[in-house]
Protein 1
Amino acid sequence: MNRVRRRALAVYLLVAVAVLGLGFYVVRFFVHGSAWASAPFNQTVHRAGILTVGRVVDRNGVVLADVTDGRRSFADSAEVRRATLHAVGDREGNVGTGALSLFAAELMGYNPILGSTNVTGAGNTVTLNIDSALNVEALRALDGRRGVVMVSNYETGEVLAMVSSPTFDPTQPPTVIDDEEGIFLNRAIQAAYTPGSAFKVLTAAAALDNVRDLSSRIFECTGEMRTSRGIVTCPSAHGNIGIIDAMRVSCNIAFGELAIEMGPIVMSRYVERMGLSGRTTVSGMATASGNFDRADPDTADLAWSGVGQFTNTVCPASMLRFMGAIANDGVAIELQLRSRQGLGGLMPVDSERLMDVGTAQRLSEIIRIQNRVNFPGLEIHAKTGTAQVGGDMLPHAWFVGYITNEDFPLAFVVVVENAGGGAAVAAPIANRVLQSAVRG
Amino acid sequence: MEWIRELIRNMQEAVAGIDIDLQSFASMLIRFILPALAIIVVVRCIKSLMQEKSEIEIWGQLKLANGTLVDLNNWENAIGRANASDVYIDYPTISRNHAALNRDDKGNWMIFDVQSSTGVEVAGKKIEPNVGVQVKSGDKIELGGVPLTFVAADNTDEYEQAASRTRPGRLYKQHSTLIFLTQFQALLGLQLYIASDESVAMAILFSFLALIGLMWGCYIAMRALKRVAFEIETLAFFLSTLGLTVVVSSAPARIATQTVFLVLGLILFFTMGWILRDINIAKLLKRPIVLAGPIILAATLVLGERIHGATRWISIAGLQFQPSEFVKIAVIFAGAATLERMYTRRNLFGFLGFMIVCMGILAPMRDFGTALIFFVAFLVIAFLRSGDFATIFLSIAGAGMAGLVAISLMPHIAGRFASWGRAWEYVNTAGGYQQTRAMSAAASGGLFGVGAGNGWFNNIFAADSDLVFAMLSEELGLIIALCAVFAVVCFAIFSIRAAASARSSFYVIGACAASSMLVFQMLLNVLGSMDIAPFTGVTFPFVSTGGTSIVASWGMLAFFKAVDTRQNASFAVKTPKRPKYSGGGAIVYRHDVELPIFEGDEI
């Protein structure tokens, strides 16, 4: 009997497996419970897959989404509804970046103790950082053209405006099945575009660290540059110019030369470090991935990639983060859609140093716009981009940068698809939105 | 019965008259009280099972030539020079496993020469190896030339020992635990009643009253039999209460059937307990029960219907049965054996053959979950009987390879493995549909649940059986769901601890095999539905809807009663009768030592 008794202790192994397995489950329950309960088939807080509790408001308390008679309702103004669609979401759950899906757990007031039925049963209010009036201004400025306007506070990461066009009124959802236009797509986060000359800021950032005597260097632009197996052209022959003028006139030869000089490995390392080739996050949500291929330095491809052409693509939100970092002495703050008031504000923001303070300050000087007639009252640092997209299509117009007005530490990105030159098309949109933001 | 209806109607009107929110307020209050009651019930049962004393019994003595007395504390005693022997005699002519000295239910003793090299002599005659020879009190036995005198405890000894042993129920009053459980049941019934339609309200009321009545009926019957321990039954009734809740919530039409199955389960429980009560009857019935196992399985294969890829069910008169559930009891019987059997060469051959036949029939039935449970039972029994880790590792390796073959041959099982651990990537396909809903529902319930009858998960296929853990979690919350889990785990812990003072290895093996199967089945159910283990579609013992599963679970419960030798604890363990004559008493108690008490793992 003693033997059998001792052997019976082996059953404790099974008990241990049970306890460990259940312990593992309980940990998962507390870690993932909020995501599990947010699934649209959790019918306690969803009807036909749509969250039936919780309210979304903007930074000024304007209601963007609410529940009326058990049904999801949206802002009173149709223009606000259209301008905030991609930040708020729709009834059908087709817009993936909206607060209704992104912050479902907070909206339902989920916590693992009480589950998805909190005491009042009415859910919570989620305050977004966006200013719905600024979004409306941005949507008006885009004037029906496809594109993106995104504005953030580079010191806090708060996203003040995020408009993606085309858009629609969530109370009258489109009946499109084949979404060719990408109407549900939030272009600010879920798209990556050829950056064109806007990318020269990255090339300059890499050159500041890797090219000796950059500030005293003179580039010779004859309108074209030959590599052993290719040719890079510039819209005009700029003659002998320094780096600041090269940035101002957006000289392809100067930046192509710098890219070749640094080589594909250094260039791709910087693109990666600045978050332009991979994914960055916006309130924890991954952005579209950018692209940077290491081109053969003998062909013109490397030079072209140094000026934002070739196979380069960049997500607008990642570009915005990069611009914010330059303004913020080299530190990028994660873009935040949701207000961090209350207890959430105690948590540290996700931040990352992208470059030295010195590099950031010199870069800031290089991209400072001296002629400010087009930007009255704004201390602006920015770069245009006119991204050739091939065929007979008009180029994408970019304008990216930031203003250093004391009360308004704002970074911005404007992209207008197939619309023409950055200076002519995108810059006026940025000016209009920034003027509105500064005037309040 | 009209007056009950009238009373409830009046109460409803009164409630509606005061404030319409009173009902939802009461329902919310109940949500928070229920987990507290569940914890009290389960913790009281566990503590009672662990803390109530199980003292040693003396069934006989061996007197050595120098006058030393050695107690025989079991019905089965291994005698030899091995350290683990029950009677350890360190003498060169005695083999490591020399003899086994066994008592049966009626007090008859047999001695077996198990693996001796120098032989066993009884009354001067050498006995055949592995053939039992009866010995009587006072007989002279010689083991390898070492003379011993055997003394058996007589009726007076047994009676006096029984009278002096501690009875359970001293630390934790069993009826107090039952009162807590009754409160739990009453509140749960009330909550379901509030949430239900009028059409099923009466059925809910009667089923809960029936459950409470059956429980107290069993308890009173036990007290009438002078049996004082009720923890095992209390835990099973707690689980059955959850099972009833699940039925009410998911398929109110089946409330009556469920109650009938509970009664059938209780009948099987008492029948099994009666069989196990007498080791002679248990050993007599072992052969027919074991033979019935493969026959039942084969009949299922031939007559059964293929539902959802597996041939597990037989339909009789519109009711579906899953006969493989009963075969679990046959597996336990096939594996359970008394001590002398364990030393024979062919020890495991018969059992191994039985398992191979069963697995061979289960494979074409495609009942992967049951096959896994049988395999775990096989491992536990094989280890208890052989103590050999090498055998176990070989078995696992062999089964692993067989499993790989099975996976490659059966696409629906392969599919389950393909999506295992990645259910959220298969949200709307077969690989993850049920599990993702299960996880969402479980998370939605939080710690306290959304309230019995208020969930949505009951509409998902198999919510009340294979995914019942999620349904419990959603409606009653994680705390109660974990209480259910620990109630089952508790059976295993109790089996191990009860082994310390069990009389026969037959009961130890039975209890360990039964509890291992229940725990493993529960684990497959819980972890499978939560995407931590592959989803095999097995039931949660006592809780899942499904008649056969409930009846078989109650049947297996009897093995825990049979191993429980705390004084007057279990109806499945006999107590000695009052001696007819005064006098008697053969055992000489050594007054220098108190009767040793088994505490915890001291064995």
Protein 2
Amino acid sequence: MSRLPVKQVVVTLLFVLMISVPFAMKKADEIMNPLFTGNMEEVIERYGFFLEEITEQAGFRHVHRRATVDEKLHHILPQISSVGASVSIVDFNRNGLPDIYLTSSEFGTLNSLYKNNGDGTFVNVAEEMGVADLNIPGLGASMGAIWGDYNNSGFEDLFVYRWGRPELFRNENGTGFTRVTEGSGLPAHINANTAVWLDYNNNGYLDLFVGGYYHEDVDLFNLSDTRMMPDSYEYATNGGLNYLFENQGDGTFLDVSERVGLHASRRWTLAAAAADLNDSGYQDIILANDYGVDEIFINMGGEYFFNTGQEAGLGFVPKSGMSVGIGDILNQGLYSIYITNISEAGVLMQGNNLWVPGRGGTEQVPRYRNLAGSMGVEIGDWAYAGKFVDLNNNGYLDLYVANGYVSDTPDTDYWYDYARVVGGNRNVIIDANNWPAMNGRTFSGYQANRIWMNDGAGRFQEVARNVGGELRKDSRSVAYADLFGDGSLDLVIASQNQGVTVYKNHADPQHNWISFELTGTKSNRSAIGTTILLYSGERVTKKYVSGGDTFSSQSQRPVHFGLGSSDHVDRVEIRWTSGWIQTVYQPGINQLHRITESDEPIASLGQ
Amino acid sequence: MLKDLIIPKTLIGPLLISGVVIAAHLSFGVLDGWNKFAIALVAAMGTELVFHRIVTGKWRDLSSAYISGNSAGILVRSPMLWPFALTAAISIASKYVFRFRNTHLWNPTNFGIVVMLMIASDSMAVLSVQWGSNMWAMGMIWVIGLIVISKVRLFHICAVYVASFIFFAWIRTLITGDLFLAEIAPLTGPMYQLFVLFMITDPKTTVSTRNGQMLVAFLIAMTEMFFRLGEAVYAPFYALFVVGPVALVVDILIRERRERREKE
């Protein structure tokens, strides 16, 4: 054998080795994450929880229907009306049981309010409560809803954001709702896809952040111009404005958006969350923007916000931000931020972002690094809500990610046409007329939701199929609540143009838990924005009362901590938005604690 | 003094592509990240060093690998690092593995990308959206690119390809009924700019005669039409992957025949 062929053989072998790398990686992944098919007890023993679908037996019949927009957009209707299925959880009648509100979008279809009967079943009371008929021509199509006690009455009020006029409903002591939109100061028209209750100035009244998606001048149901699509796939500058409505304490709201610095950009905001990222005592606002970079607006003492997306490290690479999840995933007393994006094999691989705080930040602006890849939560699909929730009560936040865009005719695909247009210049992409018709084609549809289980050591493992939770719908919104009072966090998933799905969670009974329902007195009554720090041995876990987060979702108001095998909690520190701090020593475990804000700046219980 | 500054010919390409990348990234953040770009460069140059050493026993200059690394760093889109490195490495390795009459047959980056789309499509994609929302970025790339292309006298390839693409776009509208603007939309994006300016004009993998080059450009556009009718998102890469080596082999054989005849 001459020398040349030997050399050729060597380089050929090296080449073969190279192209074997992806196959080897897939094989290794299969070995490390095998499909496990056991009965419920075996699954619980292995993973610490099992999900049982109970939608029909629990009485849920709600089906979301997409909004039917102007006929000029009918050729791409499924992607224009790709959102609107939302779920928010509230105890609207204060009977101690979480109830569930679900939106639909098509004109004439009804939103649902499922009252918890306390016996494992639910009944839809939306019509008798006056919060069903909200999808009306000329007024708007529901996109989502959030609950907050804006008038500190003790009962949670309802804000429904729409493509159209947003609506505010006052809760009449749990017996019904009164529409109080007129004269409230809310705008006549926004194409909103996200809203969050927060007390931005800590004055004890809940304010309202609303994020605009399509430009507010666009009436999607009566379109004057088809040049209403994003002007860029990655750098769009023609989205809707974002708003902050300051609660005046008299049932009215004042638009302070411009004054506080929220009108600085016109990105296409799809999701928002408000959390105190820098321990300043004030809630900051985190935005997931479609067609652009994500943003963090740091709250400057309740006076104004400044955008620190780039300084914080997450404002560089534009993607398709869909959801903002906040969680202390490593039990270090620090919030990480999970923002979902789009991943479609071979076409668009954005990957989801898990922004973990690290070194290099300042007192005011934390510095984040995207560790989604190294922690194993990067590749979803076309993802929407990415919700942190401790499903097995082991004390570490797991991650539920909703996937799927448009499931239509099987074995068809719109991606080619989509990629053609979004690769084009501004003048092409901005005009809906230039977008090829979808003609019933599937577009990143029939995708399975992900459940990533946190191992507590910095890695997540995908277990959806193994724990009974594989769901292939066009899921949008995910909320959790202890629906049955057994200490397990159950899941409610709203899917676009499809029926709701409810999972009863069977968490390992060997795992302990503790829950806190807070009532503000000096702070807003819903206690939204209040931080809870749980200390147990070496562990410190931080959570907060959320006024809406991820994608069009709001989970139960009580703050729930899984404790794993730990049989005690040393103390719990409650940092109210009023600035007052309350400490509870050695609270009992496996129970819900109802705590009212003390009338002293620093108070202790149970010492 | 500047007048006396002579830039070696081999460095013109690398310097220009570096200029485009830096300007585009600082303006629009076109790269997925400097680390991903860097790993593509390192992998390309490292593979070139190792493979060339194995085959020839010598070290070689890295300007060609540098350009391939740049292309992979720009064109690959992945949240992970390894697809950047692997694309670049496969691109360079292909030059040493697939050879005919002592010349490589595929444009290295084209080969690397197409192979990666076949074996790792769940981990990577190709740049398919535009840079920025303004026309000036697109204009800048066209201007720089055309200057380079004119210097190396390959402008006619770009012109024929673009004209053919537009012609076949019109043919496609007759077949599919889609809007003409939607059919030519990709041409306004950066993926095509890089494809037209830097990939189909690669001197090492283009045929030898001017007429032949124009014919090949036309055939690439025509083949691309069929891939497009089959709704292949990355149709131009597949078209070049198929047409490029066939054209090169035919070109070499024709040249050899001609040389043989001349000798006779």
